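Residues determine shape. Take a concrete instance:
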Amino acid sequence: MRSSLTELLGVLSDAVSPERVRFDDGSVPPAPETPEAPVTVHAVALNRVGRSRREGPLLDLELRVAVECHGPKQLDNMEQLLLAVERSSQYSVVSSGEFQPDEYEAGIRHGLGFLVRIPVALRFDEPSSPLVLEPLVATAVVARRLHGRLVDIHNKGIPNAYIRAHSSATAVVSDATGHFEVLASADEIQHFAVAVRGTEREVSASTSSLPVIIRWE
């Protein structure tokens, strides 16, 4: 998990170099005045998405971090940071329709900012004999994000629909053309809960080719 976070910090640092990016680990209470570093990053939440198997059992997680910009160059830095995250396929910015109540206000404490998802999976050993109380041994690997489109019987995109993969804890909303992006496990067949205009159905789709097409019939 720490290696995934360090990798994101490297992407952000490269985007605004030579400006400094500081990770706030919570060891020092935030000062009321503007922070010294032009860009500050701190962890906001760690959510369990589910479990999957990719060469062994994995616990799929989603780490959310807040990226804050301060000072006279905050707008320029925000632009470069957003573009850097957008170019990286393993990260995504939390859109306005996906915030939990008060999540943005609690995450962005100073200046301007946005929240970023970091998909993380923890590999662990399942006991094959009676359970023994031993420390969990885990290594971090990156989960995947699925790009897809929700269509009707005429292959027309369905906007403003709520879509959640069974292997994910977070629902997303399809855009004006029916496209969506969701965190999921590596299973080829994915099962989705889809809600269109108040009606919810369970739909399965293959991920052997992308984008995933979900048909609402």
Remarks:
- The chain has a mean pLDDT of 80.
